[in-house]
Amino acid sequence: MTAELLTGIAELTTQAAEFSHDDDRLRDAALVIENGRIAWIGPAAEAPAADSVVDVHGRAVLPGWVDTHSHLVFAGDRAAEFEARMAGQRYTAGGIVSTMMATRAASEAHLIANARRLRRDAEAQGTTFLETKTGYGLDLASELRSAKAAAEVADVVSFLGAHVVPPGIDRRDYLDLVTGPMLTAVTPHVDFIDAFCETGAFDVEECREVLLAGRAAGLGLRLHGNQLGSSGGVRLAVELGCASVDHCNHLDDADIDALAGSNTVATLLPACDLSTREPFPPARRLLDAGAHIALASNCNPGTSYTTSMPFCVATAVLQMGLTVREAVWAATRGAARAVGREHGPDAVGSLRIGGRADLQVLDAPSVAHLAYRPGMQLCVATWTEGVRARP
Ligand code: NIG
């Protein structure tokens, strides 16, 4: 068992209360990684001896990003649909079927290689923990293949058979398939069940049926809600105690109150909002009301073809009214809550003694630079469970 000392840290963001002083950052800090875990955190001047030393020379260190919403198992792209949107067409869920056809036609090896490529891109930007979903297979064999591919590349997998009803099958028959044989087949490979609660996808009662079937199978619950209108998804997610409801662009006061009075995290997807030209979610109002929020990339070929969490953090600060600290929290510890990993031995999104050594180094003295210098490649190194990688 060897100990690695990181020292010369100008600003260490731990997201752990035990290290908070006037704010959540320690200055002139150091930490020790041992056996994939954080063994020590404190002032650099008091750092213990270690087997190896990495001097980060006045840079900022923070937890790796926790990206809790992505759809990495797909083939093809939808650049033409994107261009049409930028020329004025509104996003509808219609394009999902074209990705479904490309995904069904692709080999398993291609799907895994494409998802791995995207995960590598994410890691180069500081992501150390990632959720991804099925949802572009939409028949039993293709969803099962997608679930297995997702489990190869992601830390957490969600089953999104209820993305849209594919062509050629009756709606009721498809719901019976999703809540029956398809669910049974994918359950060993997934952690959560998800559904798309939206006009053009599934209504509240259909989503309730899907989520309750997933719960009966032992899965955690999450939901896409209120992306294109007031779908009722947010209220359903709160009622069922979903870990997260994602998108949340169209919220009324009662939705915000419901979220604020619940443990359901509102996961906001700023890159998707830019690409679909939907209004940004009322992030400031959510936080001021006391709701939990997270930020995620929503990487997918239709509405958000990016894995860049720094881009999401910068957008949340520059366009959605969050402070830098709030946005960084939402992309780390807030996000961990959205996948049930905020506490316990497998917690992610924070740096604490005995916890996972998932962290990143920025080529900057402070996390403020994430929004102050948007679009720059600031991540220069990551450690995932104590193993170092460089972009
Ligand atoms: O989260 N909104 C539903 N699903 C994806 C987009 C799917 C697509 O258009 O391919 C999302 O944005």
Automatic annotation (TrEMBL):
Pfam entry (one): Amidohydro_3
Positions with a binding annotation for 4-imidazolone-5-propanoate: R78, Y136, H163, Q227, T303
Entry keyword annotation includes Cell cycle: no
Residues that hold Fe(3+) according to the record: H69, H71, H224, N298
Catalyzed reactions: 4-imidazolone-5-propanoate + H2O = N-formimidoyl-L-glutamate
SUPFAM superfamilies: Composite domain of metallo-dependent hydrolases (SSF51338), Metallo-dependent hydrolases (SSF51556)
Cofactor note: Binds 1 zinc or iron ion per subunit.
Annotated N-formimidoyl-L-glutamate binding sites: Y136, N300, G302
Protein name, entry field: Imidazolonepropionase
Pathway info: Amino-acid degradation; L-histidine degradation into L-glutamate; N-formimidoyl-L-glutamate from L-histidine: step 3/3
NCBIfam families in the record: hutI
Function: Catalyzes the hydrolytic cleavage of the carbon-nitrogen bond in imidazolone-5-propanoate to yield N-formimidoyl-L-glutamate. It is the third step in the universal histidine degradation pathway.
The entry's keywords: Cytoplasm, Histidine metabolism, Hydrolase, Iron, Metal-binding, Zinc
GO CC entries: cytoplasm
GO molecular function: imidazolonepropionase activity; iron ion binding; zinc ion binding
Family: Belongs to the metallo-dependent hydrolases superfamily. HutI family.
